[in-house]
Structure formats: structure tokens, C-alpha cells
Automatic annotation (TrEMBL):
Gene3D superfamilies: FAD/NAD(P)-binding domain (3.50.50.60). InterPro entries: FAD-bd, FAD/NAD-bd_sf, Flavin-dep_Halogenase_NPB. GO terms for molecular function: FAD binding. It comes from Hydrogenophaga aromaticivorans. Residues 9-191 form the FAD-binding domain. Signal peptide: none annotated. This is NAD(P)-binding protein. SUPFAM superfamilies: FAD/NAD(P)-binding domain.
Amino acid sequence: MGNTPPLHDVVILGGGLAGLTLAMQLKRREPDINILVLERRAHPVPEAIHKIGESSVEIGAHYFDKVLGLGEHLRERQLRKFGFRFFFSEGRRDIDQVTEIGASRHLSVPSYQIDRGIFENFLAIEAQERGVRFVETAMVRQVELTNGEPDSPATHQVVYEHQGAQHTVNARWIVDACGRAGLLKRKLNLAELNDHPAHAVWFRIKDRIHIDGWSDNTAWRERCDPQARWLSTNHLVGAGYWVWLIPLSSGSHSVGIVADPAIHPLATMDTFDKAMTWLEQYQPLLFDELDPKRDLLQDFAFFKRFSYGCKQVFSADRWALTGEAGLFLDPFYSPGSDFIAISNTYVTELIAMDRRGERLGARAQIFDQLFHSFYDSTMVLYQDQYPLFGDPEVLPVKVIWDYTYYWGVLAQFFFHQRLTDLSSLAALRSELAECQQINVLVQAFLRQWSLVSQKRNPAVMLDQAEIPWFAELNRSLNDDLDTEGFLARIRESHLRLKQLACEIILRAQTDHPDLQAGELTALLPATADAGSLSNSARMLPETVF
């Protein structure tokens, strides 16, 4: 009897962002649950240069704050993000003379720039204080899975090495959160390529990049209140790429170049010196800022092909994958922590069901289908879209569309705790399917528009805080809705997307009457034709174009 391996309710492989947040969510839901987290790195991990994925958006920020109860840490140790901001600054040093997309003031729902080293060190300590067993420098050597229904006594087995000794543990559930190493993905042959071959290079500089100081134009500086553009996730954009600037509370700044290899090959930027030469040509103001600070470089890395899918992430056989161990989309719009939040919520629900003795088969399959549906819907925002990123006429419209879809549908499901509400999902099946279909067609239409647009780049700020319905859509995430209110909210979002699609077609065809919207127009009722709308009823603001 003394040789029987210890039994845990859940063993989580990987103690990074996905694994630690899952452990904490499980503990909040099931206080008596026995969780072991195995992390291969030594703690504390380094600040500033631990991992990329520093920018959060609304779902991820809400998950950390409200679902996990980490709001105090976010407000005291991390930086509140000043939204997302874009500059069409390719080849330019006069940033005050190009089109800027962004908000002039904070919107209602906060998000954060997160130093992953600071955050993951905090999470490891906090998880242990909440009763999670956390073992650092643990190398997983073997995982044996068993099949079984809820009433089966069979358990999985994990063998790991720690401080020179080998340990064996049994587990009712195993969750792979070990990132791109993908232990279960490799074991079960779940890896899946997608059609988004973009690459990224990134580095950290031990200094602030104060984009607000890139111009001494007082009027330009005073467009924002506070005058703190540096706190935004700043995007410097051009055809086929975008450059991120993300500040870290440790005092460093994260810089990344994300590109379509058909337009900007990885070989042109896969070392720091090459990246600097590339920046000198495409984003010279950033080059000017960084060139004297080369000695402050903290790290440099790249992914050749960062985006991938996964055949299955949740199983009724009591295993799951979460975070980058499962799938990864694209860093544009910072969806990484959102998908951790969504995945962890499904895993938590399945484990809670199992602990109640309920059968998991149908529910695990449905959750897996839903999660892949969210992945597919979001992938459409990126795939084949990089060529239009340098278009100052089309990208601002795309950003409004993409956030209307995100805040109006997916974020509503998460904020109002409806991800696992299958009755609401069933009631909304037709609306959600049509939203998904319209999104695919709008993205295709945006590509066609950009092929013919004039790409005018005037010195204006397209201020999203001054679009009343857009700011209200963000605020509405904080509403407290009953089931009927929630169903009405999603149906309202469905109609809003239809009207916005009409206006996008009208905006494009005003300049380009021959631009065809065919299949998309067929989904939009004649009564919602944007051409029949009065100016006061329109959603897209007037622009200078």
C-alpha cells in the first residue's frame, strides 16, 4: 500500500498563464478539489523578458479581474491599457501628419498591459495560497491516459522528475497547459495546420518608448486625454505587416513585427540587426527611437509560423488542452488570454460536472465544437487580411467591424456567463450562424475594397470614443442581464452587424460603384439597405474621404 502513487483530482501540465489561471478557477468553483501543477521552469521567472502575450483585451481582463479575483494586482502592479491605436506611418517621420485610429479617452471596460514575468510569479504564489500544489523545475517524462466514464475508477498516470528523483502520480483529470511543447497534442496526434502562415519577431528594450514625444505638435498631443498614447497597444501598420509597441510595468517596452511572409519574408527580420534595418526602411521613427538604445536590448526571438489549430481540445475521457498547448490564432487584437479564459471556463465546467457524477460525452463534444467555432470565427479576421493592414481607408472600417463582432457577440457570451448555457445557444442558433456567415463575407468584401481603394492618408484621428454606439457597446458588457435580456442583446447585435455591413458596402461603393457585394448583399434585407438610412441613423462616422 505504501507504494501506491498519490491520487489528484487534476494534474495540470504547465504552470504558466493558462495552467495557473485554470487551477485558480477550479479552486474558486470547487474549493475542496485536489490540484497538482507541474512547471518545468524555476521560479521566480524573470521580469520583462519572460514571455510575449503582454497585451490583454476585454474578455481576458474581465477573466483575470472578476472571474479569478485578481483585480487588485492588475490595478497596482500592471498598467491600464489606453486601448488599441494604429498609425499609418510606413516610411514616414511625421507621425502627426498621418491617419490615426484610436480612442481619445478610456472606454468603460478596462484592459491591461501585463508583464508576464511579474504576473506569472504572482499567480504561482497566489495559487499556492489558495491551496494548489505547485512544483517548479518538474520535467514530465511520461503520461499514460485511460478511457473511462464518470463512474469508472480508472485514472491517468504522470511520471515526472524533480530534483533528481522520479515521481509517479495518478490523476482523474489531466490538463495540458504546457504551451507549444504540446505533450498531449503530440501523444494523441492532435496537431493541425491552418492556412495562416504569418510569422513574428519580437524583443524587449529596457526603457520606455514614449510615442507621445514623437511630435511636438501641441494639437496632435492634445487629441488624447490623458496624453498617454504610450499606454496603448500601438500598431505601426503597412501592407502585409504590423509592428506592436507594448509598455511593461517593469519599465521595459515590448516591440514586435508580425508579417505575412509573402510580402515581408522572415529572413528580412530574423535577427535584431536585420529587424532594425527593416524598421529603418518601414517605420523610421521607431528606428530613430531604438537606434541609440541598442545596448538596452534584453532579448530577441521569433516564430516562423505562430498560428496553428488542434483537432480536439476537450475529451469525455477526462483530458483537455488549454492555452497554446491547444491552438493559437494571431497576436493582432491580443486574443491569447481571451481564448485561455474561454477554454479554462469549459474545462472547469466539465470537471465540475464530473465531480457531480454526470456523464460528459455529449457535453464535452459540444464544448469542443463551440470552442472550435469561436476559433474559426476569429481566424477569419486574420487569414488573408494582412495585405490590407496598410490601407488607411479600409483598415479603420475593418477595426470597427471586428470590434463590433467581438464586443457584440463573443464578449457578451463571456461577460454574461453564457458560454456553457446550451439552451441560450440553441435559442440563438440561427442568429449566431448568420453572424458567422456575414463576418466571413464582410472580410472578403474588405479585401476586394482594399484592392481598389485610393488609400488616402490624411492627418486625422478617427476617434472611436466619439462614436456613441461604439462606446456604448463597450459599456454594455457591464450590464446585468437575465436570460431574456441576454437573448435580446445577441439579437440586437445580429441586427447591428447587418446594418453595419450595409453601411460598409455603401461606403465602399460611393467611391467604387463597380465593387460587387453579391452574396453578402443577399443576406441583408432590402429594408436595411444603408442607402435608405438617414445620416443621423448611420453607424459609421463621416470621414474626410
